[in-house]
Amino acid sequence: MDVGSPKRGKIHKGKSVADEGTAMSEQAMNDRQWENLPTNCLVDIFQKLSLHDLTLGVPFVCKSWYEASLDPSCWKILDFKTIDPRPGSEFTEKFKHEYRLDKYQFRGFLNFLIRRSCKLAILLIHPPSQRIPINDLVYILKECPKLDIYNPPLSVKNPGLMRKFILTVHETILRRASYEFM
């Protein structure tokens, strides 16, 4: 045998040992597929995904991924940094297409998030570059009682500040409106 040549596996009925090992590993790969992961493992992974991936990717891969994505713990953190929820944006057009909607309204998207989280969302990350109407912020805050809003850089040192501020401003607006109608 030549010292520089690679070792060859033994031949058994026309197949080498290396070929049999490859066939066995291919079979093992076929037996271990992502959709066969236990739901709790999928949920642990999905909790780390962006809102974009969780709404437009995961639910459309396969039935087991869709079912795992319905777990409310996947929807505890609503990070708007990766999406543009304004009507007409690329995200909303894809959302309309994937969910077969005729029209998109931001309040409808909030309802979608509230339902998916089972009202258990705890954090909405709201970049300063996005303008969300105060009525919509108040709506999601009231629907998800444990929800806090993180609006960098304001919320860094004062957790709960944005929630208190938004609800206080809304109550003030309502009081003023009621005085004007008296």
Automatic annotation (TrEMBL):
Region (Disordered): 1-25
Domain F-box stretches: 31-78
SUPFAM superfamilies reported for this sequence: F-box domain
Molecular function GO labels: SCF ubiquitin ligase complex binding
Organism domain of life: Eukaryota
InterPro entries membership: F-box-like_dom_sf (IPR036047), F-box_dom (IPR001810), LRR_dom_sf (IPR032675)
Gene3D superfamilies referenced in this protein's UniProt entry, alphabetically: Ribonuclease Inhibitor
Listed name of the protein: (wild Malaysian banana) hypothetical protein
